[in-house]
């Protein structure tokens, strides 16, 4: 659609569709102009009402009974504030102009206040669309000849001494002189060279006429001292109030005497709105922004470079999340009493991940949002992986990444807040309860969507991106506002996650951005993104290269079973394009504790190494295996048993065993009051390789992934206001509102009931009710009834009776848009309708 077509459509008043547009484009006449917002809503088509309820979903809870209730709810302060906060910069500026314009204001007056005396082609083009948006949201009603801003919005946006207007304008002459004595008003008229009048009203009108007459005002200002013009320059763009002493200087006195400054209090003067508009050349705003600022490109890359770079970062994201949860496999840090992770534990996690603390907090929150991490819910509550983590590990790499990306886009958890303080001065902790920010998903989605407006594989200029977001939501924006921070965090987090590469949106990142209203749709988008990412991820390898210095080099990402087993048998020494693992006595013992034997380990290395198993590594495995399990530790509170009495004597004689407080119970048994785990750690620190055993004497096999939380759902995002209604709900709501409005406004034949304007129910005797309903069932006419349900709730309804029998009437209920059966004894009264609503 071209610009001209958009402008023509925007001029069409609400309540027109299709072929009726041209007929409705004519201005409303005074006879047909709506007198209230409810009347304006009543003239709208169903599609327009549905659009209103879609843009302002708070009006749907609960569904209004009729259009009068809808109009009343649309004018409440909370609802209007929410609607104003969601306007773009130019629509908000248009509303601000309507708040300082006469009420009602003609279209030309609004355009003049926005464009000024010189006009502005961009404003001419954009204004119809801005007014259409305000009308759609029921913030403005009336035709172009009588534009009205809803009263609550006017109260919020109009200037006052306690609430300055964003326009910087002050009160009108009439408002500023409201408390002034008639004699003082006449003195101002005389000083301005105007003839005296007989009453204050005509005097104010004469002064207003002078200030709005460009020619006469120019002559008046030409006669002003130059210092007086300097004073006006300081006040013209606001704030319009200025403090003065009891004896003001001559320039200020001249302005006061001529009414160009009017007293607001004993020591305060104010610049009248009409004077300020003349000095501004008719503009209400210093800078009017009818066109959104474009997102400027920063640098352009080849698409292959962007996708490859992002794919490498996506793989690193998977590795980081796996490393994080592997650290917590046997149980992570304790949960703070107030919830979340302590500062010390966050530092430890950042050290383990070799990442800054803010980045570590991001990975923690990402795993939590994806449902891979949670608290275990025990008395001594700790964090641990969830069973969903094991399911996630079985997915292909691209699908694992997609699950993380989808969770990130929809999450209201905001990792960037970690370390900051809340309103009570408390530090916000990672995984804590106070990190939800409801605008986060919308901002993330909007930032990535704006990246699609740039040429493919082009990174944005961050400042231009922030300027665009501030234009789209100016009511909540500022240099340090939450939305700006969310946008900056989105850019950095998208790079960490691999949604962008080198700042540019990737092919798989674009696949995530289609509109999705539920978890199923988001999962489908995730699968599309995974399909786009998969070709760029490195293929897992099934081998390592063993070296004589007790290390193994993985030339790429390892297959899942190989990586899991090697992670138990060796310690990761370094990461990068090739991961280096180091074998130690402790790592080999860890594998033996997990139930492996020396022969199993030798066979595993032989099968998965492209180089022969070095002799030092074979000796290490055999040596640790020979000593492994020679000592047995159980509960006495703990004990050590060994067939070699000399070894037990050696342990007792060793000074390092003194903290364990061992004593000999038998030639082959030592006991202690320490816990079995502490005894195991103490003996291993002394260089031994003990094995734990059960009460039956069997060796206990420990697993690195033995600790899991109960199954838990991922945290539910905190909605930013009421949920958006779907099409089915909107259709049903519009039908219910229309039917209720019909019942409330229908014309009745009965003079007794027709005279009821207070909303009370019709009253007829049971015999009259039965006779009227039976007659309507025979003729097929509609009735207006009063009905009280079983809970005692009274309502008015319009019904078309079909059958009357057994004390019940079966009828088509126009209010509910369905056939219902009503007990006759619950009908308070009936009245015939002047016109059949069917």
Automatic annotation (TrEMBL):
Any one GO MF annotation of this record: helicase activity
Feature: compositional bias, Pro residues: 716-725
UniProt KW Cell inner membrane keyword: no
Pfam family, one: WYL
Ligase in keyword set: no
Top-level taxon in the UniProt lineage: Bacteria
Keyword terms: ATP-binding, Helicase, Hydrolase, Nucleotide-binding
Segments of skewed composition (Basic and acidic residues): 1-12
Signal peptide feature range: none
Residue ranges occupied by any WYL domain in the UniProt entry: 768-830
InterPro entries the UniProt entry points to: WYL_dom, XPB/Ssl2_N
Domain called Helicase XPB/Ssl2 N-terminal: residue spans: 544-666
Amino acid composition bias (Low complexity), ranges on this chain: 14-40
UniProt-annotated stretches for the region Disordered: 1-44, 706-725
Name recorded for this polypeptide: Helicase C-terminal domain-containing protein
Native organism: Streptomyces mauvecolor
């Amino acid at each position: 659609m071209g610009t001209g077509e958009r402008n023509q459509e925007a001029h069409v008043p609400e309540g027109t569709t299709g072929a009726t547009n041209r007929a409705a484009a004519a201005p409303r006449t005074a006879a047909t102009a709506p007198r209230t917002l409810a009347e304006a809503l009543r003239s709208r088509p169903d599609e327009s009402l549905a659009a209103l309820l879609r843009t302002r979903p708070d009006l749907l809870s609960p569904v209004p009974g009729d259009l009068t209730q809808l109009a009343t709810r649309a004018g409440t302060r909370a609802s209007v504030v929410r609607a104003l906060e969601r306007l773009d910069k130019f629509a908000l500026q248009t509303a601000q102009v309507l708040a300082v314009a006469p009420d009602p204001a003609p279209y030309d007056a609004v355009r003049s206040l926005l464009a000024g005396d010189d006009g502005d082609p961009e404003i001419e083009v954009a204004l119809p669309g801005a007014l259409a948006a305000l009308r759609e949201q029921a913030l403005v009603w009336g035709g172009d000849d009588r534009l009205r801003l809803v009263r609550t919005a006017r109260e919020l946006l109009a200037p006052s001494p306690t609430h300055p207007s964003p326009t910087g304008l002050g009160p009108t002459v009439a408002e500023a002189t409201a408390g002034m004595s008639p004699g003082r008003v006449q003195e101002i008229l005389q000083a301005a060279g105007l003839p005296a009048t007989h009453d204050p009203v005509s005097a104010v009108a004469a002064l207003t006429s002078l200030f709005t007459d460009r020619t006469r005002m120019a002559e008046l200002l030409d006669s002003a001292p130059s210092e007086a013009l300097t004073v006006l320059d300081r006040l013209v763009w606001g704030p319009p109030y200025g403090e003065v002493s009891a004896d003001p200087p001559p320039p200020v006195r001249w302005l006061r005497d001529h009414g160009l400054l009017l007293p607001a209090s004993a020591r305060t003067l104010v610049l009248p709105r009409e004077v300020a508009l003349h000095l501004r050349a008719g503009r209400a705003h210093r800078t009017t922004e009818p066109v959104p600022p474009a997102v400027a490109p920063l640098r352009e890359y080849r698409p292959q470079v962007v996708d490859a770079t992002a794919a490498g970062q996506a793989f690193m994201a998977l590795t980081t999340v796996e490393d994080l949860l592997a650290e917590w496999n046997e149980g992570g840090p304790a949960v703070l009493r107030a919830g979340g992770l302590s500062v010390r534990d966050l530092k430890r996690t950042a050290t383990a991940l070799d990442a800054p603390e803010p980045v570590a907090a991001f990975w923690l929150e990402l795993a939590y949002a994806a449902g891979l991490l949670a608290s275990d819910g025990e008395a001594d509550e700790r964090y641990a992986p969830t069973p969903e983590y094991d399911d996630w590990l079985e997915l292909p790499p691209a699908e694992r990444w997609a699950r993380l990306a989808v969770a990130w886009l929809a999450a209201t958890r905001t990792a960037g807040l970690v370390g900051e303080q809340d309103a009570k001065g408390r530090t916000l902790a990672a995984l804590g309860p106070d990190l939800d920010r409801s605008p986060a998903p919308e901002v993330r989605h909007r930032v990535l969507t704006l990246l699609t407006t740039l040429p493919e594989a082009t990174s944005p200029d961050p400042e231009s991106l922030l300027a665009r977001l501030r234009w789209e939501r100016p009511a909540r924006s500022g240099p340090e506002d939450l939305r700006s921070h969310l946008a900056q965090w989105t850019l950095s987090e998208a790079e960490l996650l691999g949604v962008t590469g080198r700042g540019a949106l990737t092919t798989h990142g674009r696949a995530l951005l289609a509109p999705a209203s539920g978890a199923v749709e988001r999962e489908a988008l995730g699968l599309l993104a995974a399909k786009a990412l998969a070709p760029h991820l490195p293929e897992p390898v099934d081998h390592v290269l063993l070296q004589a210095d007790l290390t193994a080099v993985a030339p790429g990402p390892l297959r899942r079973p190989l990586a899991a087993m090697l992670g138990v048998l060796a310690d990761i020494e370094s990461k990068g394009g090739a991961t280096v693992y180091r074998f130690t006595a402790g790592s080999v013992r860890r594998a033996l504790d997990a139930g492996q034997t020396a022969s199993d380990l030798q066979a595993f290395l032989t099968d998965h190494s492209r180089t022969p198993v070095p002799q030092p590594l074979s000796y290490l495995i055999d040596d640790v295996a020979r000593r492994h399990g020679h000592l047995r530790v159980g509960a006495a509170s703990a004990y050590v048993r060994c067939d070699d009495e000399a070894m037990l004597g050696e342990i007792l004689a060793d000074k390092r065993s003194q903290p364990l407080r061992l004593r000999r119970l038998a030639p082959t048994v030592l006991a202690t009051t320490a816990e079995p785990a502490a005894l195991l750690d103490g003996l291993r620190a002394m260089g031994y390789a003990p094995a734990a055993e059960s009460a039956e004497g069997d060796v206990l096999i420990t697993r690195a992934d033995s600790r899991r939380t109960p199954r838990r759902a991922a945290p539910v995002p905190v909605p930013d206001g009421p949920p958006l209604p779907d099409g089915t709900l909107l259709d049903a709501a519009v039908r219910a509102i229309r039917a209720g409005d019909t019942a409330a406004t229908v014309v009745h034949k009965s003079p007794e009931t027709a005279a009821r304007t207070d909303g009370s129910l019709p009253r007829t005797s049971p015999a009259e009710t039965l006779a009227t309903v039976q007659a309507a069932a025979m003729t097929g006419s509609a009735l207006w009834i009063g009905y009280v349900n079983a809970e005692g709730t009274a309502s008015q309804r319009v019904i078309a009776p079909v059958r009357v029998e057994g004390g019940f009437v079966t009828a088509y209920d126009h209010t509910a848009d369905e056939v219902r059966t009503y007990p006759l004894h619950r009908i308070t009264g009936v009245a015939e309708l002047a016109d059949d609503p069917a």
